[in-house]
Design a protein that fits this description.
The protein is α+β, with helices and mostly antiparallel strands. Helices cover 55% and strands 10% of the residues. The chain has 21 helices and twelve strands. The protein has helices at residues 5-43, 58-72, 85-88, 90-99, 118-126, 136-141, 143-146, 155-165, 171-175, 178-198, 209-225, 229-247, 263-284, 296-331, 333-346, 354-357, 361-373, 405-408, 412-415, 431-434, 454-471, and strands at residues 102-106, 111-115, 132-133, 203-207, 379-384, 388-390, 393-395, 400-404, 472-476, 484-486, 490-492, 497-502. A five-stranded mixed β-sheet has the order 1-2-8-5-3. Strands 4-12-9 form a three-stranded antiparallel β-sheet. The N and C termini lie far apart (94 Å). The structure holds protoporphyrin IX containing FE. It is found in: Membrane. Heme binds at residue 451. Keywords: Heme, Iron, Membrane, Metal-binding, Monooxygenase, Oxidoreductase, Transmembrane, Transmembrane helix.
């Protein structure tokens, strides 16, 4: 039977119609919205690189990144330049030089505002509105890793979770965890002593990163869930596998994939996610709060999601910060000596205690300076969930704001001409006297979404570094290759390798 041409045309049109409606919808909601936001910024005098149609500045970002990769492979591998921003985030640096500390760019479907002006960061610090949240396009991809816990959520739901979880990390609670931190560090100290014995009894070449990660995981496991690392180990290994599946996707570029991932990858993520959830629930269900107002399922997901969040947020960045601290201390043995000298005055019976922590000023300054030069979290990112105002800038709904922390931490106008040097003494009289704009020192973020594990992380770093420096002296191994790399946080790309000797 022959189909008449007009009938064929009608059925083709019927099939195509939903696609046409979808494309018109995308064009109106996404492309036009992005255009409107951009126009409004330009009218306020904010410039930026010219975007291409549909993909915005993505092609240029990728081009600049490739050019930098090629150029940096020719550089001497052993050269340690603390300013890594132009190699790790070259497009932001290039545009900053062209357009200043505030500019706009686009990743195709989204418009962004780069905000690296200290006055505006101060404004962000003071804003208490719920109208600025975490960018949903970023956090959506991280749902399997973080659930709908504090890091990912926004608005009232975030505020409710933060109110419940934050008090668990107040300073008085953290002080009660010092003993368990000291206990958790013992296996690492013993392992490194054994390494020295095994390598001839005088000096050992050790790669510190995995040991620090295990230690930090052990601390957070014991502190939050009472279970030791041996129980939490399975959870960590799966969370790490999940993290690795994400760092492959170029989160920052936000390459539009319309939510689609290859089926095999999607299955892997779903399986890991299910495993992590049941392992966490097994570990905590007896002690979990059963808040009747939340309902049974909501209560379970509240606990599981926030455990995942704390497991992830709580151990990775602290371990990486400890690696960077050891790298810098290895380069600067005079600061190791300074820490030991102070310990001799402060420690009672040669032992670290809760009371002694407040008097360990030198190690605190070293940590502050390491977090200035190598802040593990590279960005503060926000999305305007409603129209809002940032200083004198009218911010449209949907605009994403980005503050590049390492750039702010190296601004000579804030820190002086020695901004790229390791000088812990600048923190001698605290953060407020270390630079012209103390609000520009933001290793733990800004405003109401400031890291809630800040006290916990600082105390843990103090304990771990104090113990290591009291037992070992160390220098950089010739095998160390300086390669800061962005994998959701800025970490030593090939790890930190040091030569250790017993004191
Ligand atoms: C040196 C170690 C750490 C660094 C550098 C760090 C840094 C940060 C940064 C930059 C943010 C984002 C803040 C913002 O968007 O303004 C953040 C958020 C967060 N951090 Fe940390 N963090 C560290 C350790 C920890 C620890 C130990 C915990 C848990 C015990 C933790 C839990 C969190 C949570 C739950 C959030 C989300 C807060 C919210 O959105 O309300 N972090 N952290």
């Amino acid at each position: 039977m022959e189909v008449s041409p007009s009938l064929g045309l009608v059925s083709s049109l019927t099939l195509l119609l939903p696609l046409v409606i979808f494309l018109v919808h995308v064009y109106c909601t996404v492309v036009l919205r992005s255009e409107r936001i951009k126009r409004k910024l330009r009218m306020q005098g904010i410039q930026g690189p010219p975007p291409s149609f549909l993909y915005g500045n993505l092609p240029e970002m990728q081009k600049i990144q490739m050019k930098t990769l090629k150029a940096s492979s020719f550089q001497a591998a052993d050269f340690i330049a603390h300013d890594y921003t132009s190699t790790v985030f070259p497009y932001f640096e290039q545009w900053r030089k062209e357009y200043g500390s505030i500019y706009t760019y686009s990743t195709g479907l989204r418009q962004h505002l780069y905000v690296n002006q200290p006055e505006l960061v101060k404004e962000m610090n003071q804003m208490v509105t719920l109208d600025l949240g975490k960018p949903s396009y970023l956090t959506k991809r991280m749902a399997p890793l973080l659930g709908n816990g504090i890091v990912r959520s926004n608005g009232l739901f975030w505020a409710q979770q933060r109110k419940i979880v934050a008090p668990e990390f107040y300073m008085d609670k953290v002080k009660g965890m010092v003993r368990l931190m000291v206990e958790s560090a013992q296996p690492l100290l013993k392992k490194w002593e054994d390494c020295i014995e095994a390598q001839g009894g005088i000096v050992a070449d050790v790669k510190v990163d995995e040991d620090l990660r295990e230690l930090s995981a052990d601390v957070i496991s014991r502190a939050c869930f009472g279970s030791s690392y041996s129980k939490g180990k399975q959870i960590f290994s799966r969370l790490r596998s999940l993290q690795q599946t994400f760092s492959g996707q170029n989160i920052l570029f936000g390459v539009p994939n319309f939510g689609f991932l290859p089926a095999r990858k999607q299955n892997k993520i779903s399986n890991l996610e299910r495993e992590v959830e049941s392992l966490i629930w097994e570990a905590v269900k007896e002690r979990a709060v059963n808040d009747q107002s939340l309902g049974k399922d909501a209560s379970k997901s509240f606990v599981v999601d926030n455990c995942k969040t704390i497991y992830f947020a709580g151990h990775e960045s602290t371990a990486v910060a400890a690696s960077w601290c050891l790298m810098l201390l290895a380069l600067h043995p005079e600061w190791q000596d300074g820490i030991r000298k102070e310990q001799a005055e402060v420690f009672k019976d040669g032992q670290l205690s809760v009371d002694s922590l407040n008097h360990l000023k030198t190690v605190t300054m070293v940590i502050q300076e390491a977090l200035r030069l190598y802040p593990p979290a590279a960005f503060v990112s926000r999305e305007a969930l409603e129209e809002t105002q940032l200083g004198n800038i009218a911010v449209s709904k949907g605009l994403c704001l980005w503050t590049l922390i390492p750039t702010l931490h190296r601004d000579p106008a804030v820190w002086g001409s020695d901004a790229n040097e390791f000088k812990p003494e600048r923190f001698n009289c605290g953060v407020s006297k270390a630079c012209k704009f103390p609000q520009a020192y933001i290793p733990f973020g800004v405003g109401p979404r400031l890291c809630l594990g800040k006290n916990f992380a600082m105390v843990e770093l103090k304990v771990v570094l104090s113990l290591i420096v009291s037992k070992f002296s160390f220098s950089l191994s010739p095998k160390y290759h300086h390669s800061p790399t962005y994998r959701m946080i800025v970490e030593p790309g090939e790890g930190v390798q040091i030569l250790i000797q017993k004191i």
